[in-house]
Amino acid sequence: MINSIEKSVAEFIGTFALVLVAAGSVNVNWSFLGSHEILGVATACGLIVTLAVYSIGNISGAHINPAVTTSLFITGQMELKNTISYIVAQLMGATGACLFLSYLVPADMGNMYLGTTVLASEVTFKAGILIEAVLTFILVFTIFVVAVDNRTSTKYAGVIIGAIVFLDIIVAGSLTGASMNPARTFGPAFVLGHWADHLVYWIGPITGGMFAAFFYTGIFSLKGNTA
After folding, report:
1. Is 227 a domain residue?
2. What is the dihedral of CA 31, 37, 38, 44, to 10 degrees?
3. Closest CA to 23 of 112, 117, 116, 115
4. CA atoms within 13 A on the CB side of 34
5. 127-166: per-residue pLDDT in tens?
């Protein structure tokens, strides 16, 4: 039996890896390629999510995202104690990844960015929330179908979830950064002290994830396992 501490450690490691790759790939594209090449970022993020699902999925469920954890909590799939410990571990993992990245990449090579998610100049605060909410709705709905609901879960869940992350970033990466994950945005923001429009990346993903969870359970019901 895997205990709650072990699950939280897995979430820390998984989120560390996710944010290191997500923020690092943005840094590489800005610093070394001289432009924000969205395809490379989307590919890197999709792959690390896929690998996380297959590596720690059997330990913690590989949430690596407070929006996912919250969505599972409100549908009775997570106990409050584990929900809190998961989210704390996710935020710590994201922060640790960005601290490491700030030392890994010299300032003159771009660590001033640290993969920070920001709104494009034409995207308003409300529009940013809507975009992040829609992207996260798609992600969480997919997670419920292929990983949470025991009736429809599949061994290809990691590939499918990673593909959704890839496509979401392709569609909206240039608009909001396509975070879909408060921890993904919190890490760079905390390390850099860059809090502009930060609430977009909490309100949007949490709202979108919760709506997806309620929608799925309301329409299809749910047969899962409580953690």
Report:
1. no
2. -60
3. 115
4. 0
5. 999 999 999 999 999 999 999 999 999 999 999 999 999 9
- 8 within domain boundaries: yes
Quote the domain boundaries for residue 76: 4-220
Cβ atoms of 165 and 46 closer than 8 Å: yes
Full-prediction pTM beyond 0.85?
Answer: yes
Domain tally for the chain? 1
DSSP category for residue 107: G
**pLDDT tens for each residue of 160-207:** 999 999 999 999 999 999 999 999 999 999 998 889 999 999 999 999
Q: Give the position of tokens 């709705």.
A: 137
How far is 36 from 17, CA to CA, in rounded Å?
A: 21
121 half-sphere exposure, CB direction, 13 A CA radius: 0
CATH assignment of the domain containing 108: 1.20.1080.10
Q: Can you tell me the distance from the alpha carbon of 30 to that of 221, in angstroms, rounded to the nearest whole number? A: 44
